[in-house]
Amino acid sequence: MSDQTKTWLGSRLPIAHNIGNQLSRKPLAANQPYLAALGMLITATLLFLVLSGVVLSAYYVAAEHRAFQSIQLIMRDVNDGWLIRSFHATGTTMLFAAVYLAIFRALVTGSYRLPGELVWSLKLVFLLLMLLVGYLGYAMQDSAVSYWSLHGVVQTGAGLASFPANIFNWVFGGPAGPGTLTRLAVMHGLLTFIALGVLALHYFAKQAITPPAEKTVPLHPYYTSHHFVAAGVYVLLFAVLVFFAPHLGENPLNQAPANPLLVPAVTTPPWYLLPATALTHALPGTNGGIIAFIAAFAVLFGMPWLDRSAPGARPGFLYKLLVVVLALDVIALCLVAAAGPSTINAVLTIVFIGWYFLHFLVLTPLATARELN
Amino acid sequence: MKFGIFAAALLAAPLGFGATAHAEDTLVPLHWQSQGTFGSYDQAALQRGFLVYQTVCASCHSASAVHYRDLTALGLTTEQVADLIANIKQDNQPVTLNSRLIGALPKAQAAATFGGAIPPDLSNMVAARPKGVAYVYHLLTGYQPAPADVTLMAKHYYNAAYPGNQIAMPAPLTDNAVTYADGTKATTAQEASDVAAFLSWVSDPNLDARRQIGLRAVIFLIFLTLLAIATKRKIWRDVG
Lengths: 373, 240
Fold this sequence. Notes:
Strand content of chain A: under 5%
CATH topology of chain B: Cytochrome Bc1 Complex, Chain D, domain 2
CATH class of chain B: Mainly Alpha
Radius of gyration of chain A: 23 Å
Helix content of chain B: 40-55%
Number of helices of chain A: 15
Largest sheet of chain A: 2 strands, antiparallel
Number of strands of chain A: 2
Strand content of chain B: 5-15%
CATH superfamily of chain B: Cytochrome c-like domain
Oligomer: heterodimer
Order of helices and strands of chain A: HHEHHHHHHHEHHHHHH
Number of helices of chain B: 7
Shape of chain A: globular
Largest interface: A-B, 35 and 36 residues
Shape of chain B: globular
């Protein structure tokens, strides 16, 4: 912008001018790891998903038995449609990878501790919203596997008690039928915008508790160049997946259209839904699955209080080791869920989920209490 | 990928491992040019594959996501495609470049013929099977006499590659089922290999474009990231 334009904009729209000026001079801590850029990357990815999603919605038809065909049209006949769809699908993979990583990082660094409990909770709310949005997007494909998954979910909803059933109907719109996919598409978009709001709250809540750094640098050019590096690596990874592994972590059977007469042999969902799927299959019955899911999130929300360490203490080695083991445990759980049902897998699921709860309810309080200083 | 399948073929042949290791398998290496990270379609194989598809498979199957006009991607001009489809009819009407690859068999008639099984649309068949192109090849070459302890269901055939081994599709390919314009010998294995290649193009017509753009995008991004790292280092030099 020329100086003349700047003065003109400053006099006509002072706020834009001030925000720009203040933001670029904002003092920030001088020592930041590259992973500190995760929040920025998550926000950028979600905005990118909104953008590609809006473009896709121009051709997507949200109606049973037509949705799949409309996606085929996008993939085959719309100019560069395959690229936009790849962006959207791979963007989802990148987003979930970043969110799971951010949650892992918060657990390792102990940033969930007071006064970080609200920031931590907002992270979890964001993950919950993303799981829902991700699931809705998966179901909207109306393909061989997702079709049956959606019908299972809708049937589950029909069996719920009145209060959860109300919420459920609000999202899924009652029994699967002519309007279902339209409602899913609306919720898919709406919840995304709510999630953007949660990201904003997360940002402000984090600002409020970040102590002033001893040594600071202005945002520009220091943070801009720093985040540019993180973004470069992230986008590079993104591009490799878009162009060379566009179906990473998907069930190949889901590439076929829905067949109301044939339940697919393997019902594995996309990789990012696996932790949730494993939980909902852990206990028998509809309610068992829902209870396991709620309990798994409840212990996460409870972390600020399950951690018994003294205020200001840095997480100790034992605790960090346990978090790494927990991450491996969750990955193992996902692999078992992906392998499909069998007797051994049922046992393994219980073992891995058992370890998950043991970690939060027993090991974390013990380890953190031991590592008081 | 490429290496894996090659190694599997090498291992399978001498061990007689897997019932699909026929003698003719050795003639067609179990590798398709589109496999691997940087592979691209072999257009000659795709053209031969289309011939097999149109001559044999189309009497039962459809591939309705594809139009005849899309066949220019096989390295043919629009005129060549028009010539190629000149004698193809759908519902007694000659097809046009904008017609979709619809099968000749009405669904109800198919169900009656095949004991309830309906020949599935092949538009996404290769993408929708875990082993993709190799699976289709093995399916088409996997017909065998049923072992003594297997009782076949009515109107079913024994196939080593099909899950459950009993398939309602009669063995579609025979030697010389087609005559290749390029002089390639039309063995069953060759036909199977070619039609599998064609069907993988049908499933993923953008593979070539995707990988070409992708290579450029990735090289550009590597360069950009290195530049970003250099810039960052320079700017942060005094901060440490």
